[in-house]
């Protein structure tokens, strides 16, 4: 059986509406215009600090405000779960993969506090034997260290990474781990330009894709 690590935002969960809400809470009182969800979605993927930096840059806010705005963003983000939804079929796919004996982990750039809260909110923690957030290690994706750590915690066996973004594709490539891309996620780069082993556009298709990749002997390497 395989070890499979999953990204969270834009992969398992459509969390951009809640992230947008937390970002707008941080912007209150700055005089800056609030974000729409589509804008916030484009800033997701590289962790909270980079999200706030991108949001600030788009509004011409001075860099000196970053620490205060990040603190306010994290405070609002901690319980931001009410607009978030799992992608259709995601929970059923996890159930199927778990029943098949695969060992599962989370490898996200979302801070651990909000990660734990949202996993508990949707009852997802039961699926995962390891959880790594953006602040679990001194580095975060696309550095391969968090992915290596999550997979190491799962023991031995073929490894796969499931994500949605440019950051995830680079992480899997640098880690030497086959990466499957969920195409409706938050990616903005054409899929053809990203290193990946396979792609799927609905979670119903993932368990069969996992078996296909493992059966083809791609459980230990990536291809472009």
Give the tally of structural domains: 2
Largest sheet: 6 strands, parallel
Residue share in helix: 40-55%
The percent range for strand residues is: 5-15%
Q: How would you name the CATH homologous superfamily of the largest domain? A: HAD superfamily/HAD-like
CATH C-level category of the largest domain? Alpha Beta
Q: Structural class of the secondary structure composition?
A: alpha/beta
CATH-assigned fold name of the largest domain: Rossmann fold
Order of helices and strands: EEHHHHEHEHEHEHEEH
Distance between the termini: 24 Å
Order of strands across the widest beta sheet? 5-4-1-6-7-8
Stretches where pLDDT is under 50 for at least 5 consecutive residues are 220-224
Number of strands: 8
Q: What would you call the shape?
A: globular
Alpha carbon gyration radius: 17 Å
């Amino acid at each position: 059986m395989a070890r499979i690590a999953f990204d969270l935002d834009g992969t398992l969960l459509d969390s951009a509406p809640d992230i947008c809400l937390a970002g707008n809470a941080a912007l209150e009182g700055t005089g800056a215009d609030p974000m729409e969800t589509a804008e916030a979605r484009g800033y997701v993927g590289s962790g909270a600090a980079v999200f706030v930096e991108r949001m600030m840059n788009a509004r011409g806010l001075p860099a000196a405000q970053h620490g205060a705005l990040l603190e306010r963003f994290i405070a609002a983000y901690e319980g931001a779960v009410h607009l978030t939804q799992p992608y259709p079929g995601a929970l059923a796919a996890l159930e199927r993969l778990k029943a098949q004996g695969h060992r599962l982990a989370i490898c996200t750039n979302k801070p651990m506090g909000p990660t734990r809260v949202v996993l508990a909110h949707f009852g997802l923690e039961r699926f995962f034997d390891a959880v790594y957030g953006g602040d679990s290690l001194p580095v975060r994706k696309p550095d391969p260290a968090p992915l290596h750590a999550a997979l190491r915690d799962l023991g031995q066996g073929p490894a796969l990474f499931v994500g949605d973004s440019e950051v995830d594709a680079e992480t899997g490539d640098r880690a030497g781990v086959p990466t499957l891309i969920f195409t409706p996620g938050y990616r903005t780069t054409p899929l053809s330009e990203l290193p990946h082993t396979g792609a799927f556009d609905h979670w119903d298709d993932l368990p069969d894709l996992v078996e296909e990749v493992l059966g083809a002997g791609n459980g230990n390497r990536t291809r472009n």
